[in-house]
Amino acid sequence: MPAATSTTGFFQVEPQLPNAWDEDATLRRAADLFLPASTVTAESADLHSFAADVISPEIFAAITNAETQLPYLNGGGYTAFGAPQDAATLVTSPGWNILQDFALASGFVPQGYDAKLGGSARVIEALKIALWAPSSALTTCPSGMQDGAIEVLRNQLRNNTTPPGWNKDLQDTRTKVFEAALGRLMNTNPKEAWTSGQWMTERAGGSDVRGTETIAEWVGMGADGVDLNGLPLGPYSISGFKWFASAADCGVSILLAFTPKGLSCFLAPTRKLVNGKVKINGFRFQRLKNKLGTKALPSAELEIKGMRAWLIGGEGRGVAVISTVLNVTRLHNAIRTAGFMGRGLSVVRAFARVRTFPSRPAPNNYLYHIPLFNKTLASLTVRYRADMLVATFIAGLLGAVSTNQRTVAVLPASHEDNVLLLRLLTSVAKAYTTKHGVAHLQECMEGLGGVGYLENNETPHLNVARMFRDANVFPIWEGTFDVLSTDTVKVLRGKLGAECEGALGRWINQVLNAGSSAQLAQAKQAIRARWEAFVLSLPSDKDTLMPHARYVVNTIGDIVAATLLVADAERDGNEVAAEIARRFITAQFAPEDVKPVFGQTAGVSRM
Ligand code: UCC
Ligand code: FAD
Question: Which Gene3D superfamilies does the entry link to (predicted)?
C-alpha cells in the first residue's frame, strides 16, 4: 500500500444531512401524537419544504458568515483627541440579517396564532422551531421573545383595563400603540416586521429581579418624537442599567422597571422618529458580551436614560405580567433544545452510515455495525424521544389553553386541567430538556470522533461543536435549572398546588388507562408506582421541600416523559416506540439491582 499524501490515500466520505421531516422518526411521531391525523396530512408538504429550506446551502453559508463576522458596536467611544463620538450603533453580519429575515418571512411565529389551525397552531409552530433552531444561529432567540411579546400584548388587549388616573384619550392612544406593535410583531415582511427584546436581568440579579435598579418615572405625553408607527412615545421615562439584553436589534422591548407601586412591566420601542430621523429611544450600548457560544447573537449591556415607554398590566404586577413572556420563551427553549438534539443525532447517524474501519472486514465495517456504538446511539435516541415529546406536550397544552380547544386525546380532558398542567410543567420542561441537551450534544460530538470537536466552517451543516457551545446557554437563560425548580416547588406548595397535583394525577391515569397493550403493562405499573411514591414522599412544607427542588423537577419530568412514551407507543402499536418506552422506564425507574446490564443493543437502523 503506498504511503498517504495530502491528496492521496483514505478520505472519509462526507455524511449527508437528510431532510428531518422525512428522516426523523421522533419528530414525525411527535407530530402524530400531538396533531389530529387530518392536520398532519394537510401540513405535511409545508413541513417537508420548511425542513428542506432550513438545511439549504444558502442558510449554511449565512451561518458561517454570522459565526465568523461577529456583531460589533460602531462608534460610541472617544476620538484620539478625547472628544466623545456619537452613541454606538450595533452592526450585525449579513449572515445574521439573512437568517433573521428568513425567520420573519417564514412566519412560523405568527403561525402559532393562526385561528384556522386552532389548538394545533402551537404544535405546528413548535415543530418548525425544532427544525429551524439548529440552523438559525440563534435568531430563534429574538423570535422567541417576539412570540412572548405577542402573547403579552394579546393578553393586555383582551383585558384592557384603564390604569387608575388615566383619561380616555391616553388609554385609547395606548391601545393604538399596542395594536400597531402587535401588527409589527405578527408581520411577515422582514422590512416592516419587529422582533422583541426582553430586558429583565440587571447586575444585582437575573434570577431574583427584586433588586432591579431601573426606575420608571411618570412624565406624561411630551413631544419627544413618535415611534416608527407614527404614534406617541409613552408617558413613562425609564432610566437604569440592563446587564444582559440579547438581540438589541429588535423593534420593541418588554422590560421591568420600578414605579412607586413596585416592579412593573413596560413596552418600549427601541427606535423613535425625531424630525423625520430615526434615533435610539433613550438607551446606549455599553458593550457586547463575549460568550462561549451564541456568537452571532448580539447580547448587550445597555444604559437606559429617558427611554419612553408604556405600562403593560397593573403597576407593581411586573413579574406576573412578564411571566407570560417567560412561559412562551421557556417553551421555545425546550423545543429548541429538542431540535438541537435531533439535529446532532441526525449528523451522527449520517456519519455512522459512512464511517468505515480498516481493521474490520467489509461489508460489515461501518461504524453502525459496532454494537457498542449502536447501543450508545440507541440510548441517545431514547433520551431525544422523551425530551421531544415533553417539549411538544407543552406546545399542545399552550395551544389548547389559548384556543380552549382540545385537539388530541393525549391532552388533559378538561380545559381547567390543561391550564393547571401548563402552569406546572412549563418550567419543568424547560429545566428538564435543556439540561439533557448539553450532555446529549457532547455525546453527538464524541460520536464523530475528533472531527466532532472541530469548529467546522467548511461543512457547517455537520458542525456539532457549534451546537454544543450554543446549547450550553439554554439551561442558564430564561431561568436556571435551580430557579425553575424553585418555581415548580412554589407552584406545588402554593395556592394552586393541590389542584396542579390533582390535574397531573388525573392526566397520568387518563393516558395510562387509554390503551391496553400487554407488552407495556409492567411499564405502566412502574409509572403509577413511581407517581404514587413520589407524591407520598413529598414534605407538605414548602421550605422543607425547597432544597429538594431539583429532585422534584427531575421526577416530574421523568414521569411525564414516561407517560408520553407509553401514549406514543400505544397510539399505533409501534414496536420500536414500545421498546423505547420500556427502555426509558427501566433506566429511570427500575431499582439499580434489577436494571438489565446485557441485551438492548438494537439501535440506529431501527430508531
Ligand atoms: O434570559 C432571558 C432572555 C434570553 C434570550 C431569549 C431566548 C428566547 C427563547 C429562545 C429559545 C432558546 S430574559 C431573562 C429571563 N429571566 C428569568 O427567567 C428570571 C428567572 N427568575 C424567575 O423566574 C423567578 O422565579 C422570578 C423572577 C419570576 C421570581 O420573582 P418573584 O418576585 O419572587 O416572584 P414570585 O413571587 O415567584 O411571583 C410573582 C407573581 C406571582 O403571582 P401572584 O402575585 O398573583 O401570586 C406568581 O404566581 O408572578 C407569578 N409568576 C408566574 N405566573 C411567577 N412566575 C410565573 C410563571 N412562570 N407563570 C405564571
Ligand atoms: P444569578 O441570579 O446571580 O444566579 C447565580 C446562581 O445562583 C445560579 O446558579 C442560580 O441558579 C443560583 N440561584 C439564584 N437564585 C436562586 C434560588 N432562589 N435558589 C437556588 N439557586 C438560586 N437576560 C435578560 O433579561 N434579557 C436577555 O436578553 C438576556 N440574554 C442573555 C443572553 C445570554 C447569552 C446569557 C448568558 C444570559 C442572558 N440573560 C438575559 C440573562 C439570564 O437570564 C441570566 O443570566 C439568568 O437568569 C441568571 O441570572 P444571573 O446571571 O443574575 O445569575
Answer: 2.40.110.20, Butyryl-CoA Dehydrogenase, subunit A, domain 3
Reported as a single tens digit per residue, the pLDDT across 108-139 is 999 999 999 999 999 999 999 999 999 999 99
Residue 231: CB atoms within 10 A of its CB come to 18
Q: Whose CA is nearest to atom 24 of ligand 1?
A: 207
Nearest-angstrom CA–CA distance, 566 and 563: 5
Q: What is the count of structural domains for the chain? A: 1
First vs last C-alpha separation in the chain: 38
Closest CA to 338 of 140, 185, 585, 186: 140
State yes or no: pLDDT of 314 exceeds 90. Answer: yes
Q: Is the pLDDT of residue 481 over 70?
A: yes
- Bridge partners (DSSP) of residue 205 are 202
What pLDDT is stored for residue 590 in this prediction?
Answer: 75
pLDDT of 364-401, one tens digit each?
Answer: 999 999 999 999 999 999 999 999 999 999 999 999 99
Q: Check pLDDT > 70 for residue 592.
A: no
Q: Closest Cα partner for 283 from 223, 241, 311?
A: 241
Q: Is residue 603 part of a domain?
A: no
Distances (CA, A) of 138 to 55, 99, 133, 297, 323: 15, 9, 7, 6, 22
Structural domain contains residue 577: no
Determine the Cα–Cα distance for residues 132 and 56; give it in Å rounded to an integer. Answer: 11
- The sign one gets for the Cα dihedral 511, 516, 522, 528 is positive
Strand pairing report for 299-312 and 262-269: antiparallel
C-alpha cell at 482: 435551580
Ligand index nearest the alpha carbon of residue 204: 2
Residue 159 lies in a domain: yes
As for the ipTM of the complex, it is 0.99
Ligand 1 binding residues, C-beta < 6 A: 140-141, 144-145, 198, 200-201, 206-207, 209-210, 246, 319-320, 323, 326-327, 329, 332-333, 336, 474, 477-479, 483, 487, 490
Q: Is residue 358 part of a domain?
A: no
Which of 140, 255, 325, 477 has the most ligand 2 atoms within 8 A of CB, as the residue to mutate? 477
- Express each pLDDT in 244-294 by its tens digit: 999 888 999 999 999 999 999 999 999 999 999 999 999 999 999 999 999
Q: Say if residues 50 and 132 touch (Cβ distance below 8 Å).
A: yes
**271 vs 257: CA distance, rounded Å:** 19
Q: Which residues contact 551 (CB under 8 A, 6 or more apart)?
A: none
Domain that holds residue 225: 155-316
Q: How many helices (H) and strands (E) in the chain?
A: 19, 11
